[in-house]
Specification:
The structure holds two protein chains of two kinds. Chain A is built from nine helices and seven strands, in the order ααβαβααββαβαβαβα. By secondary structure, chain A is an alpha/beta fold. Chain A is globular, with a radius of gyration of 16 Å. Chain B is α+β, with helices and mostly antiparallel strands. Chain B contains eight helices and seven strands. In chain B, the strands form two sheets. A four-stranded antiparallel beta sheet of chain B has the order 4-5-3-6. In chain B, strand 1 and strand 2 form a beta hairpin. In chain B, helix 1 crosses helix 6. The two termini of chain B are 44 Å apart. Classes of the chains: A alpha/beta, B alpha+beta. At the A-B interface, helix 1, helix 2, helix 3, strand 3 and strand 6 of A face helix 7, strand 7 and helix 8 of B.
Chain lengths: 230, 256
Amino acid sequence: MAVESKPVPDEALEQQRRVTSLIDPDSPSAEAFRSLRFALKLRLESQPRKAILFTSADPGDGKSTVAANYSLAASLSQRALLIDADMHRPHVHEIFGLARSPGLVDLFVERLLPDSLERVVASYDALDIITAGRPVLGASDHAASKRMEDIIERALEAYDTVVLDSSPVMGAADAIGLASQRSVDVLLVVRPTTRRRRIRQALRELALVDANVVGVVANGDSRATAVYTY
Amino acid sequence: VGHTYGFVSVSVLDVYRALWRHRYFTIFFTLALVLGVWYLTKREQKTYTATTLVRVEQRISNPTEALNALETGTRLAQTYAKIATTDAIASRISVALHGQVPQSEPFGALSASEVQDLELLTISAKSHSPRQAQLMANAAPQALRDFISQTGTSHDQVITIQRAGLPGAPTSPNVTLNVIAALALGVVFSGAIALLAELLLDRPSSLEELEAVAGVPVLAAVPRLRFARLVRPGRTGTRTGQPSVVTPAQSERKQT
């Protein structure tokens, strides 16, 4: 169920439009996300269903864009939920042209029960979205909390695919906190410009909390363009 | 075969891959260097060399001195090789060729070397004009003879064996040699730059290498995305109370 919120001013909407990062689900670019879904399905088939956390070593690697488009592709055939768990610099609400709040942080601040998830869910076509919520200090402390675990588990009960978009591993504690949740699998988004050293550092950080890193997504790979224009 | 230098592990395959990845840079750099060298070499003033072969020997008055004269002949050739390059000889040539070559031309233009173990001497003259090089080379034996007669060593004699011909091709610059050298240097330098760039940039260059660095599989390679453009309001975004309006453009499909 979608909740009402204040309309976004036209100027703000225009800004949102400029940063939009969605692709046409029928376009060749969407093929990469379908391939990713298929690869994840094959890889995680025999394991208990978990949320997929998209993170990266550094900011600007495109994890929000990848997470948003992956969720959108998933929503074509499944019940899919995208949660913006980047509480420092959230982008999901900008990508989909939604208001930032109410969202994930509001679940913590207003001490809503995980069962109240519907109260903060918005939608974009068939995709359900929980935006980051209002900016509050210490928001990243919630990432590793029991309440977050409950929210993720509640989401997994209600949806076939749950996607978390988080901050970069090296930029804030959110990603590490989320990755430490037992009901989360981690995908590392890497750009062609990401340094080897940063990738290793990010993976080391994730390994410290026993994160289950299931794979890497190479984002912005020029060689992939030819493959997906078939 | 791998070698580890501190934190950096470099294998022959890594080097090959680095060079292959930067092949366009290598080709461009090498071609630019070759073209640059070729252009500069072509612009360089041509130098011609003409060579005269002479025999230097001691006059003998009776046959018993013949063997001794032969032994001293090779030493004489060495001595006159030094004398031939002096200003004393150059000034004599300058006077002899007055009006045919510039006065200063013979100075520094002459070189000479003895033929090993023989009493032969080659005298070469260099000039930007083939004709002037020939004239100077052919004037050198007479200049040596004048020097001998004026210094009182009249038992030494210089006999011209072969006069210098008109040089048909310049001895410098050597375009072929310079281009080959530029080609070799271009490949070596651009290869070194490519390897250095690889080490400094520190980026995985292929999906295989990314997998090796990460230790987990690459599940997808997302191309550079062509994003949707907003053309009409009113699609979804139910929470905002306003349409949020993202309509993917059709341009991408059109292009494929």
